[in-house]
Amino acid sequence: MNVRQSQNLVASARRPGGFTLIELLVVIAVIALLIGILLPALGKARRAGQDAKNLANLRSMGLSMTLYANEWKNWYPVMPIPPNYQSQTFLSGQFVYGGVAGLFSLYQVGDGDSTGHYGYRGLNNNPDTAAYYTPPGAPARTVPLMRSYLEGLGILVNPRDKEDRWYGFPYSPTPTVTSYAAAASKIPKPPAGENDVVAYNISYLYIAGFKTDESNIVTPAPLWGDETNGPDVSTLAWYGGGNPSIFAAYGQAAGAAGPGGYAPVDNQGKEGGSFVFTDGHAEFLKSTPSIPVAQAEIIQNIFFSTDTQRFPKSINCIDPRRSNRVQTVD
C-alpha cells in the first residue's frame, strides 16, 4: 500500500456517517408535503365516518320511535301535557320536562348538582318520585316514554357535536339565559345512564305531534334531527325561525349565516343538518339563508312554510295549520 492509499483509508475512517444538511432539508420538505396532502384527506375521511354514524343514529331513533308509535295508536311520543297548556289550540308544554331530555329521563343530573346545570328532576327533587304530570287519582307516570324502546343512550350524541349551550332550567320559549353569549358552553358526552341525560348531552331536536299514518301530510314528516346551539324550543327553533330579534340574540353571536339557519358551531356546520323522517329514511338537508327570509332555503321553511308552492315538502301543503299542532324541543 502506497502513501496516497494509506491517506485515503485514514480519511474514509474519519468521515462521519449520516445525511448532509441539504439531504435532511430535502427529506423534511418531502415529509411536510406528504402531510399537507394526507391530512385533508384523513380529515375528510374522518368526517365522512362521523356523518355515517350520525345517519345510523338517526335511523335507530326513527325505528325506536316507530316501535313506540305501534303500541300507542300510531302516535309518536308526546309527553303528558300539564294543565296550564291543555287549553291551548296548538301543541305546547313539551319542553317542561327538561326539553327533549324528558323523553329519556325524569331525573336529569348531568354534570350539575343542587346549584349546577341540571335539568328536570321532578317536583320534589327525588329520583324515586320524579314523574310526568299525572291527573288526580291516576298512577304516577315515573317511567320515561322511550325507556323500553332504546338499547342504549349513546345514539343521543352526534359524533361531530363538539359544543352545546346551556340556557338554564326550567325550559321555556323565553329562556332563562337571554343570549347565546351568556349561555354556558358545554361539551356533549354520551350518557352512560338516565341521570346523564340532560339537554347539553343531546345533539338532536325532536318535533313532537306526528302520527305514523297522516293522510293530510304529502311527504314524510321530519321527526328527529340535528339541533343548533341556539335554544331550539317552540318558536325559537333554528335561531328563531326568521324572527330578527331572536336571531340577533341567539344566532348572530353564534356566527349563523342568516335568520333561521345553522351556524359554524353547530353539528355539521352552517351547511345544514340531517333528519330522520316518518318513513324511516334519514338524509342531510342543506340550509341556505337569504333575504327575504320567507324565501330562504332554510330547514324552518322546508318543513313548516305556508308557501307550499315554493316548499312542497312542508307539512302545511294540505292543512295550512298543521304546523300549529307540532312543537320543536331540544
Question: What is the fold's blueprint, element by element?
Answer:
Blueprint: H1 3-14, H2 21-71, H3 83-86, E1 164-166, E2 184-186, E3 204-208, E4 222-226, H4 237-240, H5 244-251, E5 272-277, E6 282-286, H6 299-304, E7 327-329
Antiparallel strand pairs: 1-2, 3-4, 3-7, 4-5, 5-6
The arrangement of helices and strands along the chain is: HHHEEEEHHEEHE
Mean pLDDT, all residues: 87
Q: What is the number of E strands?
A: 7
Shape: globular
Low-pLDDT runs of 5+ residues are none
Decide which structural class fits the backbone.
alpha+beta
Number of helices: 6
Largest sheet: 5 strands, antiparallel
Overall radius of gyration: 27 Å
In short:
By secondary structure, this protein is an alpha+beta fold. The protein has helices at 3-14, 21-71, 83-86, 237-240, 244-251, 299-304; strands at residues 164-166, 184-186, 204-208, 222-226, 272-277, 282-286, 327-329. It has one domain (21-329).
